[in-house]
Specification:
The protein has 104 residues and is mainly α. It has one domain. Helices cover 64% and strands 0% of the residues. The protein has four helices and no strands. Helix 1 crosses helix 4.
């Protein structure tokens, strides 16, 4: 289930803040926005609303590269994307809009 535009913006800001604190480096909310946008498209494209985070992160990487996100070593990794998806789940739960995804 997609978040409305306002809640999606809050989610991106919150996830970016949490990850910046956790990793000690800057994570842009725009990256989170892009991941959330591409994620919704992939869930529809693959007719899999419960796609697990590992599969989603693997499928997101080519889309992110196509959008100009640096994904080579030392940049945005599949593991980082998977962590973003986990934080998004945390936000959705706190916002009362949890999603059901398969656990890998």
């Amino acid at each position: 289930m997609a978040l409305d535009e306002k809640l999606a913006g809050e989610c991106a800001d919150w996830v970016a803040e949490q990850m910046t604190e956790e990793f000690g480096g800057f994570i842009a909310a725009e990256l989170i926005d892009l991941i959330m946008e591409q994620e919704e498209k992939l869930r529809v494209e693959h007719d899999d609303p419960q796609m697990d985070h590992r599969t989603m992160s693997e499928r997101l990487m080519p889309n992110l590269e196509e959008e100009g996100v640096p994904i080579k070593e030392g940049a945005v990794s599949r593991e980082l994307v998977e962590e973003i998806l986990n934080w998004e789940d945390e936000f959705r739960g706190l916002a009362g809009q949890p999603r059901n995804v398969r656990r890998s």
